[in-house]
Amino acid sequence: MKNTVFTIIAFALYAVIILAIGIWGFLKSKSSKDYFLGGRQLGPWTTAISAQASDMSGWLLMGLPGSVLVGGMTESWIAIGLFIGTYLNWLIIAKRLRKMSYAAGDAITIPEYLQKRFFTKSPAVRIICAVIIFFFFLIYTASAFNGGAKLFEFVFSDYNISYRTSLTIGALIIISYTFLGGFLAVCWTDVIQGMLMFAALVVVPIVVMVKVPDLGAAFQNALSESTEICGKQITDYYWSFIHAPDGKLATTTIVSGLAWGLGYFGMPHILVRFMAIKSSDLIKKSRIIATIWVFVTLTAAVLVGGLGMIFLHDPQNADLLAAFNALGSSEKIFMFLSSSLLPSLIVGIILAAILAAIMSTADSQLLVTSSAVTSDIFKLIKKNASEKTLMWISRITVIVVAVIAYVIALDENSTVMGLVSYAWAGLGAAFGPVMILSLFWKRMTMPGAVAGIVVGGASVVIWENVPVFAKTGVYSLLPAFVLAMLAVIVVSLMTKVDREQVDDLFKRASASNIDAIPVKAKASEAKAETAKETINDEAPADGSAE
Question: Pick from 265, 275, 515, 461: which is nearest to 371 by CA?
Answer without folding.
Answer: 275
